[in-house]
Amino acid sequence: MDSSNRRSGTLLLWVFVLSGFSGLIYQSIWTQYLGLFLGHSSYAQSLVLLLFMGGMAGGAWLVSRRSDRLKRPLLAYAVIELVIGLLGLGFDPLFQSVTQWAYDSVFSSVGSGGVNGVRWGLATFLVLPQCVLLGATFPLMSAGFMRIIPNIEGRVLSGLYFSNSIGAALGALASTYLLLPWVGLPGTILSAGLLNILIAIAVYPLSKVERQPAPLLKNASVQRSGDLPFVLAVAALTGASSFVYEITWVRMLSLALGTTIHAFELMLASFIAGIAFGGLWLRSRADKLASPLATAGWVQIWMGLAALTSMFVYANSFEWVGWLMRVIVRSAEGYGLYNVASGVISLLVMFPAAFFAGMVLPLLTLALLRRGDGEKAIGQVYAFNTLGAIAGVLLAVHVLLPLIGLKMALATGAAIDLTLGLFLLHRYSPNSEGRLTSLGKALALSLAGMFGAIAFVHFDPLMLTSSVYRHGQASLAEGSRILYLRDGKTASVAVYETPNEDGLGGAMRSIATNGKVDAGMAAGITEVPTADESTMVMLAAVPMSMKPRFERVGIIGFGSGLTTHTLLGSPRVAQVDTVEIEPAMVEGARHFGARVERAFSDPRSHIVIDDAKSYFSSSSERYDLIISEPSNPWMGGTASLFSKEFYGFVPRQLNDDGLFVQWLQLYEIDPELVSSVLTGMLASFSDVNAYLANESDLILVASPKGKVPALNAAAFADPLLSADLKRVGVGGLRDLQDSFVMDRSALLSYVSQHRARANSDYFPILQLKAPVSRFRRANVGDFSAFLTAPWPVARHMGAVPARSLSAKLEGLPLHVVRKQQAARELHAIMLGNRGETRFVIPGDRLAAELLRSRGRTCSLDEDPKVSAEIIFSLAIETVPYLDANQQLELWKQPTWLACEPEQGLVRDALALVGAASQDQHDKVLAAGERMLEGGDAKFIFSNETASYYLIGAMQFAALATKQPELSRDLRERYDGLLLPVVRKSPPLRLVSEMASSP
Predict the structure, then answer these.
(1) Beta strands 553-556 and 516-522: pairing type?
(2) d(CA 135, CA 55)
């Protein structure tokens, strides 16, 4: 081999690394694109795999029929890379225009029955041409390489297989961790297209030194009749088993590592890396093998045994993940370390079997080349292997996982490989004596491996459903029991009961997707309801309290079925279409029994298994109400239901006076990500109001035209719906009104405080960043804090008066209700009505008793700074929660005060709080100015409590009197003097932002 050929060969290997890199970018990004169109990443992954493999099989087969007649395979390769690149450059605009056309025109004309055919047909049209072209690259590159450097076919094939595969593994990681965050989907696929064009430019000069293929002599060791069909059948079957492994491993590891985009790409990269290094190991050995097919037999045996061994490794992975979650610091850096560790776990499970899989194709191809089949053998083996991969995907997704579960699906794949190994050894071992010995050893190992895996590996259901990647516990609590567990087509769904942790008995029943609990309810109707129950009931009850009737309601996500059940408790609803993409979710929800019975038995209930966006598009009728309650946005396939494109789509499915309701988590998320959702939503709806079902669940109600209607008591006139509400603590309209937290103006101010790019289908901020927030245990407390702000901002926006002292307090599991109860107790203490204090904290009780004592003994002036601080502290706990009469006797005309204080600081503090309690905003501003500009200003700015209440009260007064210039002046003059903890307080920042907005 001369030096110029050697340099050319080295360059081609590097080129093929880049080719594999761009190829896996396409596969990863097509999965993202088609997930937007098909509705769930699992379906998109399956279709992309099918099209990717099917197209590659077609491309390889076409090349196999013409390879020997091509004078310059590398030139053909360069042209194909150029065309792939040009198609990549145009993919994003083509995708957006085609899918928009489908949603706007096609789906509604074909009806729900034809939507799936159109959807899958268009998806095929969008990616299949490039897949066919990609399939042609490997056989063309191999043929061209062997013409430049002849007579080392095994080394060439193995080297190219390694180069292409290692590039693919790197491409899978780069697309998710580097390109998507930087340039989004359009930029990532554009980058791949540009890379293909560069590859074409690099290969073109090398194509000029290609020579004609040398005639290959038949090798006597491979001369049996039927060799070609047999070898191609082996290629297809081993392709099928490999993808049964991949699909099953991904589903298995999702239960341990989480269903995130990062976890999926790590698994994919681990699988491909194993294949790559298998090819690398074989590179220096292939040409020395006496019988490649006999070696392939042993490789198949070891691949099957490695797959069975992966069960043992996987069974321990939950403990490893639990340990990681306990020892890694919950930070952004810690999340990076967790990803590295997740990659290691994925490698431990996948790499061994994938390593052997990486040897099979080069060995089979080498055998046919030695047989004298020529360059066409490369395309033939590649084509049949990819056809087998298609069969493996279909077999795993539609047959094995739903019918026999994870463990037996993996064992089925192993059984295929072990059987193939035995057949290959029987047929191609060098001599009869060696054949018997090899067969005996292989058979013994196969039987021992299969027996050991099936008999001794147990996938504990309590482990599989533990959600260890969230909580760090490798199993559900002791005493838990599994009621339902099924590996569905898109996810593994479980229903289980866990004992309550409060020691009071009872249990909680939960339904989980890939370990993530999507809904939890108290197992017994008499037990205390969970926070999830209040959320699911409120999602139905809030809109039901806004309009007199709903002819047609759509719900996205079945969950437990409680939202559907609650809606159907009202005769004012004519029809409810609940759209769920995973059939096992609906089947599992039946285990909630009578609690969700109407969702299954009421004739008005229609459960639809489909993608919500496609289903709604196919309907010619619009909806009066759409409720979206998908799983958390870091779960695969759900982030697109929180995107600006989705919010642009929803109004077209609503009647002009229709309503849209969106659930949004406030746990395991940060303010910027919440803002990214709100930014997209506010741009598409004329009005949006926010309600809190509990401290961690936000309910957004949006109107496409006009204002969101005010809450009324209609829901409480429906006996069944009213009973559901009472169970979660909502006894009447006033309880429901307590959940209101922000109107559109406040939400816009929140967004301006936490500026973030709107979450988009094409720049998936949520999908990429929500897993980090989940790992960090981030939490957004801004909405709960705003609801309990010491100035009645929420009450002002909703025009809802404070409860009277005689009103019964029930209410949702909200902090504001507990605050109302505590304010009543403080009122009683200040007025001398001693009694039980269940909700007042000891510090506030002592402060109230001290202030009353000083007021009764005329000693407020003795220590004016302490007195003023107590006055502001108690104002924070009472002013927003008591009605005008209660406030009058507490602050405006305080009956606990025996004589007027003479000290200016105390007098002004009382005057400001008294004016604030009666909404006398001009007097609030006057008293505040006196304090901030007088001799006591230094005390005010150095005291956290005093400055927080005073500045906030003045900003609220500016808001209520619509004086944005005054608000901006207050901020300019005083913000720099505030303590950092006061200046950064979310309620104060939000009130100031609202007040200063024109």
Answers:
(1) unpaired
(2) 6
Q: For residue range 508-562, what is the model confidence (pLDDT) as tens digits?
A: 899 999 888 999 998 776 678 888 999 999 999 999 999 999 999 999 999 999 9
Helix (H) or strand (E) holding 10: helix 3-38
Provide the pLDDT for residue 809.
Answer: 65
Cα–Cα dist 179/823, whole Å = 53
Contact by Cβ (8 Å): 347, 500: no
CB under 8 Å to 687, separation ≥6 — which residues?
Answer: 702, 703, 706, 707, 708, 744
Strands 576-580 and 605-609 come out as: parallel
- Angle at which helix 107-148 crosses helix 41-66, to 10 degrees, equals 40
Instruction: Look up residue 962 and give its amino acid.
Output: K
169-180 pLDDT tens trace: 999 899 989 999
Distance of CA 304 to CAs 250, 409, 445, Å? 17, 13, 10
Q: Which helix (H) or strand (E) holds 198?
A: helix 180-203
Whole-angstrom distance, CA of residue 434 vs CA of residue 997:
87
What are phi and psi for residue 297, nearest 5 degrees? -60, -50
217: confidence class by pLDDT, cuts 50, 70, 90 = very low
Give the C-alpha separation, 533 to 529, whole Å.
6
Q: Where are the alpha helices (DSSP H) in 493-634?
A: 531-544, 562-567, 583-589, 597-601, 612-618
How far is the C-alpha of 562 from the C-alpha of 564, rounded, in Å? 5
CA separation for the pair 409, 901 (Å, rounded) = 82
- CB-CB contact of 678 with 750 (8 Å): yes
Q: How far apart are CA 904 and CA 913, in angstroms?
A: 14
Q: Considering the entire predicted model, what is its pTM? A: 0.90
Structure tokens at 864: 């004016």
Q: How far apart are CA 157 and CA 400, in angstroms?
A: 33
Q: Tokens at residue 301, please?
A: 């045996």
Alpha-carbon gap, residue 548 to 568, rounded angstroms: 14
What's the pLDDT at 808?
A: 66
How crowded is the C-beta side of 351, counted as CA atoms within 13 Å? 14
CA distance 898 to 891: 13
Please give the Cα distance from 15 to 699 (Å, whole number).
52
Pairing of strands 605-609, 481-487: unpaired
Question: Left (φ > 0), alpha (ψ -120 to 50) or beta: where does 64 sit?
Answer: alpha
Helix or strand or coil: residue 25? helix
Q: How far is CA 837 from CA 828, 831, 842, in A?
A: 10, 14, 9
What three-state secondary structure class fits 919? coil
Q: What is the DSSP string of 118-173?
A: HHHHHHHHHHHHHHHHHHHHHHHHHHHHHHHS-S-HHHHHHHHHHHHHHHHHHHHH
Using alpha carbons, select from 787, 533, 766 the residue that is nearest to residue 668.
Answer: 766
How far apart are alpha carbons 935 and 61 in whole angstroms? 90
Q: What proportion of the chain, given as a percentage, has pLDDT over 70? A: 91
Evaluate whether 140 touches 67 at the Cβ level (below 8 Å): yes
Task: Give Cα separations from 612 to 114, 580, 619, 623, 627 (angstroms).
Answer: 15, 7, 11, 13, 11
- Contacts of 28 by beta carbon, 8 Å cutoff, 6+ apart: 171, 172, 175, 176, 265, 268
Mapped onto helix, strand or coil, the DSSP state of residue 494 is: strand
Match 């359009």 to its residue by tokens: 186
Pick from 741, 731, 798, 744: which is nearest to 541 by CA? 731
**Which residue from 720, 715, 732, 719 is spatially nearest to 811, judged by alpha carbons?**
732
Instruction: Give the pLDDT band (50/70/90) at residue 221.
Output: very low
Q: Under a CB-based contact definition with an 8 Å cutoff, are residues 917 and 823 in contact?
A: no
CA separation for the pair 759, 24 (Å, rounded): 25
